[in-house]
Amino acid sequence: MADPLHNEFPAGSLEDKDLRHLLHPTTNLKLHHQVGPVIHDRAEGVYMWDTRGNQYIEGMSGLWCTALGYGEEELVRVAAEHMRKLSYSQLFGSKSNEPSILLAEKLKQMAPFDAGRVFFGSSGSDANDTQIKLMWYYNNVVGRPEKKKIISRKKGYHGVTVAAGSLTGLPAFHAHFDLPLDRVLHTDCPFYYREAEEGESEADFVDRIVGNLEALIEREGAETIAAFIAEPIMGAGGVIVPPDGYFDKVQALLKKHDILFIDDEVICGFGRTGQPFGAQTMNLAPDTMSVAKAVSSAYLPLSAVLIPEWMYEPMIEPSGQVGNFGHGFTYSGHPVCAAVALRALELMEERDLFAHAARVGEEFQARLHALADHPLVGNTRGRGLIGAVELVADKASKQPFEASQAVGYNAMRFCEENGLIVRALGDSLALCPPLIITSDQVDEVFTKMTRALDQTQAWLGR
Ligand SMILES: Cc1ncc(COP(=O)(O)O)c(C=O)c1O
């Protein structure tokens, strides 16, 4: 085990200080002490540079968030203007501010369902925590205090706070944290390539896992289940696109059992999947929605929960009786974040960015799926400008590599050596470039990725 207080970098260098002072989020801490940090220095458009002068094309939009790319002067201008004018205000106790009001109106207009109210936060995790609390509050005030459980899916990612982290269906986010909470249930992941049984058709796979969901609902009792939460396309779980028919059948089941559908659009929202929202790409009719990330193009942190008016109305009287609707964050409706998000959404419209992303997304998907011919690639999947390639030891049998070989991690490092930022999710390499990416830049991404895959193969051969 590397001694966390000692490293090979020059004393006092940024790398040395990083290794001595930071607790890195969502990082393999052991590996981090062996390899040290890559320190980002500056970025422009779809390119980024580290402190050693290496240039990268941004294949991941940071953490799936920088939709408008980096260095957008108009957002810099709006942030500075609003910091000068009203650097902070709140929405507690009936206070309000113009950017929050106008952003709420804008989000309702854009939403792919009949949204009535918008609650602001700062992160996808706090948005999904809010979703859970609103479900509990709502069911209490409408006289269904037993209807509280939330169904999520294995490999789903909904954040890391105690409640949202419980929704997340990835073991590393539960291990040693005493999660998940017991009001959260996890059902099957709709990942045909990995989860289908031998010889099972896609349609049969869907029927089987939706049957398992129905069995879970019956076992627990529909009267104890408030909601089901899903990303239209799973992101951090490995960019998993459910098979045709999956969501139609799930939604019919939820309707039958009076279970609400929470649509987690934190990655898919705002043009990512070739439509304005993942709900449209996957044909969803959600009851509520969480957004974050691209809503502000990550220039400042902002998230929002959208709920229908019929959920809001029954909460008014009871909050009067208690004397408060006791939920809110210091930064709920931060005026500078809201102003930047509002301008980001306007820029997307002014530049017809969703149509651009859909168009370039077709080229992106064609190049992505062409990688299926590479000897290391077992599966390619995606929609619009999000996708993944899964590396396997044997294509025919889908045999994965041993985890100890860290093939995904090493392939990611080869991508970085070629000047391409990707994210390794196990042995899947995820791509999610800024929506402003051009056809030539898509070509650059896949040229670099192909070279990195060839190098990975050569490295495995050694
Ligand atoms: C679908 C989804 N929901 C929620 C979250 C959590 O967002 P945050 O990291 O801002 O808390 C993420 C983050 O990647 C996400 O991908």
Please explain how this structure is put together.
The protein is of the alpha/beta class. The chain folds into 2 domains: 38-71 and 353-461, Aspartate Aminotransferase, domain 1 (Alpha-Beta Complex); 73-350, Type I PLP-dependent aspartate aminotransferase-like (Major domain) (Aspartate Aminotransferase, domain 2). 41% of the residues lie in helices and 15% in strands. The protein has helices at 14-21, 29-35, 61-64, 73-85, 98-110, 124-141, 162-167, 192-195, 202-220, 246-256, 278-281, 309-322, 335-350, 353-370, 407-417, 439-461; strands at residues 40-44, 47-50, 55-58, 117-121, 149-153, 184-187, 225-230, 260-264, 288-291, 303-307, 377-383, 386-391, 420-421, 423-425, 428-431. α10 links the parallel β7 and β8 (260-264). The chain is globular and about 70 Å long. It starts with 13 loop residues before the first helix and ends with a helix. The model has no long low-confidence stretch (mean pLDDT 97). The structure holds pyridoxal-5'-phosphate. Pyridoxal-5'-phosphate is lined by residues 63, 123-125, 128, 157-159, 231, 235-236, 264, 266-267, 292.
Annotation keywords:
7-stranded mixed beta sheet, 462 residues, 4-stranded mixed beta sheet, single chain, alpha/beta, Aspartate Aminotransferase, domain 2, 16 helices, binds pyridoxal-5'-phosphate, Aspartate Aminotransferase, domain 1, globular
